[in-house]
Structures are given as C-alpha cells and as structure tokens.
Target: Amino acid transporter
Amino acid sequence: MSGLLAKQAEHSSPQEVKSRYDDVSDTSEKRGTTADVASMWRMGKTQELLRNFRFVSIFGFSMILMASWETMLGTAGIGLIDGGTAGMIWMYLIVWIGFICVNTSMAEMGSMAPTSGGQYHWVSEFAPPEYQKFLSYVIGWLCVLGWQTGAANTAFLAGTQIQGLIALNIPDYSFEAWHGTLLVFAVSAFNVVFNTFFVKKLPIIEAVVLFVHILGFFAVLAVLWATGPIVDARATFTTFNDYGVWNDNGLATLSGIVAVVLPLLGADAAVHMSEEVRDAAQIIPQSMITTTLANGAMGFVMLITFCSVLGSIDDALASPTKQAYLYVFYNSTGSVAGASVMGALVILMAIFCNLSITATSSRQLFAFARDKGVPFYATFAYVPPAWNVPINAICLSFAVSCLLSLINLGSSVALMNIASLSTCAIIASYIVSISCIALKRIRGEQLLPSKFDLGRAGLPLNIVSIVFLIFVFLFSFFPMGPKPTPAGMNWSILMFGGTMIFSLVYYLVKGRNVYVGPVEYVRKTA
Model:
C-alpha cells in the first residue's frame, strides 16, 4: 500500500497526498501535520514510521541520549589523566560553546529537510551538483559508523559502570574484561527489546526518564554540596594533570578532549528521529537548541562540583571501582549504600541513554538503506507493517555493539577506542554537511525555506563550527600518551580508515550502480 501511495504521489500536490493518507489505513499518528506531509512529498519519501513524538517527548529523547551530566561523570577518568580538573573544566566550556554553534547550524538544516537521513541527505541537497552523489554516500557511511559505534560506546560505558558498582559493594570482586563484555551484551539486549516490543510507549518512557534525569541531577548535586570535602576553588580551576606524559599541559588537555566531547555530542539524534516527530520542521530545531543549552549547563555545573569535591586525583584514579565518580560518591557520603544509590541512578541513565542511541542508530541506518547506500539495503530498510520500526536495523545495532565490546578483551583503553571512533565519524559528517551549506551561502545561492532561519548570522556560525569541528576531529585520534603500548593505543584511526576503505570498495563494485543520492528523489516544487 505504501508503495502504491508513493507512485500515486509522483505527480500529486502535498494536499492530495495528505488526502490519500486520510483515505487509507494510516492512523493519525502516522500522518503528521500538513507540513510533515509536504516535507516528505518534497523529499520523495513515503511515511513508514509513526509520528508519535511531540516536543516534550523528543526533547526528553535528546536530553537522555546526551545525558551530559551522567556521561561527564563516566568519562571523567580520561580527563583526569590528560588534563586534570582545570583542563576538563576549561576545555568543557570551549567545547560547549563550539557545539552551540554546530547544533545551531544543523538545526537550520534539520528544519529545511527534516528526514531520518540527516547529514547525508543534506549533503546530497546542498553540495555542488557534481559532488552530491559521492559526498552524500561517504557521509552516509560516516553517519552509520558514528551512530553504530555510539550505541556500542554507551552500552560499554553502562556495562563497566555496573562492574564498578559491584566492586564498591563486594571489595574482593575481581575485575574481569569478559564480565564487562557480557554486561554490554545484556544492556544492548535490554534496549533492543525496548526498541521493538515497547516502541509505541517510547515517547511516554522518554518523558518519564527526562523527569528522573533532571530530578537526579539536583539530588546528586545536593548530596555532594552537603557532604563533599570541597577544596580550594583556585586549585580546582588551575590544577592541570599530565599522567599521559606529554610533557605539556596544553597537549595533554587536548589529547583528553574526548572526555568532554562525548557528554555534548549527539544533539542531531533528534534529526534522525524526525520522521517520527509531529511538525518536525518546527519541533526538531527547538529540541536541538534547548537540549544543547540545558544539557550543557547541567554537565558544566556537575563537572565543577565533581572537581571541587574530588579530593586526591591519584586516589580517584586508583579506586578499586575503576570509576572516579563512584570514589567521589563514597568519599563524600562515607556510606556504601548512599554511594550505591547515587551510582545506580547514573547507571540507570546510562542504560536509557543507550536506548535512545540504539533508536537513533537504527533509524539512520534505515534511512541510508532506503537510499540503497549499504549492502543488503532491502533487508535493513524493511519496516514490518505490524511493527512500524526497522527491526533488522535495530538487530544490526545490537550485533555491532556486541562485536565492538570484544575490544575490551584485548585493550586496556577500550572505552577510549570506541569513544574516539564514534566521535571522529560523527564529527566528520558534521564538517562536510555544514561546509556544504556554508558554500551555498558564500556563493549567494538560494537556500531552502526554514522555520529556523539563521539569516545573516548563518555564515559566521557555519565558519566557526567548521573550524571548531576540524580541531576536535584531529585530536579525537590521539592516544592517552605519546608512546602507547599496543594495548594502550588508540586504534580508532585504523577502524575509521578500514571502514572508509570498505565503503569505497563497495561503492566501486556496486554502490555507484544502485545509489543515486536523496537529491534525485527530491521534487523541485512543493
């Protein structure tokens, strides 16, 4: 039926397409607003997913996916090794400002073309015509790589934090790498179940967890401020650390940049869910900007609080829990039970963060497969009518998370590897997509109408975003020290390069014959 509607829509107006949806079996949740139908008609896409997200639910979805204050606690160990308290605080502030510019630029594009494809679709529409097909293909692969590894990263973060909580309560617990890997399997499986069997309840769940996210933030802050051994503020804001032995505080801080990038990465998740959002062109940019400001502020306050009550950096890094924040919780409260409750809250949010990222990664893969950009595209683009979710794409996300968690069996810095891989891939997709719209502005070309028009501020914001993103991209490949062992090496550059080589080989062998790029489906009038 959806295929028939697509064919009938080829020479129809948005209003006629809307009328046909009204006359068929699509529910009101699936239709969306007239603006949603018009956007899908212009982009040549058939509505296959339910539009059951509103502002509060998609805002909750984005807030939980970023989970800035919780993620900041989980990645703090990386920043303490390379940068120290001062390095993390000042670098966080710089990165937050940078992402405000980046997400503002992408919010405008998300309003112009609200599609699950996101960056690769924008590149296909905004790049110079001679480069549209190839560039959008490459960016599609980068988005797939970035979001699939992002799902693995958050599952790994949750799994290792569960191990830390076990170690806090059982002093003679022996940390085993395979324990962490199995916990990744469990977290990923839990979220696959949620993203399939309970998908219709996802907006309600996100709204409820948003409340926990905000309430938990104030609860943890109150406990740390009331019980923590607050140190001199001057020391907190001026003490750098170089345990990676870079012999330069600035370089050490930059090599640990992933610690503060991860908590602020992923506001574009809302874009990849846009085909499930009602009035997407209006709601998506609102959600992206609000999420960036709110989560960024919460993460910054929590980071300063964490650094202020940290105590000994050496003791925090040497904690048997292998989680600096659990050491801080216990050191502040003096109670295993109290620290366990606070730690469980952070872990719970990490699990639901993974739930949101799994949903996002599967939708992005679904969109790229729909445009025939990956092997077995028909399989991953398939949406069972009774489910209204891309089940095969969700299952692949689960498989990728499980496979990447195996890195933990042979690397002492598995989190750094997976986090860096996710960061560099997503950042690269940001760079190219923003560069394309910046080029259109420089050339004075007409842009698509947007409900979030940046006007004259657009080009300066685009340029600042590009410079900032290139800076982050380069340092995301750095290891934690200048002379790493094989087990301590940041292998993300190898995995990044390997994925790009595979995608190019596939393009030459088959992709160029079946992938035409989203712009070829776009209707020039709407």
